[in-house]
Design a protein that fits this description.
Elements: H1 2-75, H2 84-99, H3 102-116, H4 130-148
Helix pairs in contact: 1-2
Length: 149
């Protein structure tokens, strides 16, 4: 009788372990998908910000260029055109960031760094471990309970 119960309990335990493993995998997949969606949303916001900034900077650049050109022609001072050059570089960068291939070049460079310069990606003091996080949590909770008294 005990053998049959033991065998039944082992089968139930094995089923429960498989169920827990399956649930863990599902939770991990959902977490990865959620994090990826958050990353995509952040990138979309950054690109949208670049496009919005480009509208304002483009207007400023156009007005400044027209104003500096008119001023240089009226006063016959070509030196007044000098600010157009650095402003043009900034405008070109913003245009590339908002509508160009900058993001693809950055992604390619990031992949290159991850492949060939892995040591640059190491975190100071290494990757946090459960023990280090738990130690910090306990220190903070004991400090909080001490302050509450």
């Amino acid at each position: 009788m005990g053998f049959l119960m033991s065998k039944s309990m082992d089968a139930n335990l094995k089923k429960q372990q498989e169920f827990m493993l399956h649930n863990s995998r599902l939770q991990m997949e959902r977490q990865i998908l959620m994090q990826n969606q958050m990353r995509e949303r952040q990138m979309a916001m950054q690109i949208a910000w670049s496009r919005e900034f480009l509208k304002y900077f483009g207007t400023f650049f156009t007005l400044a260029s027209v104003g500096l050109t008119v001023g240089a022609m009226k006063k016959k001072k070509p030196a007044l055109l000098a600010p157009i050059v650095p402003l043009g570089f900034i405008f070109a960068y913003q245009m590339d960031s908002a509508y160009g291939t900058l993001i693809y070049r950055m992604r390619g460079e990031a992949e290159n760094i991850m492949a060939s310069e892995q040591d640059r990606l190491d975190m100071p003091s290494g990757i946090p471990t459960f023990d280090s996080i738990e130690k910090a949590r306990r220190a903070k909770s004991s400090l909080t309970s001490f302050l509450e008294k």
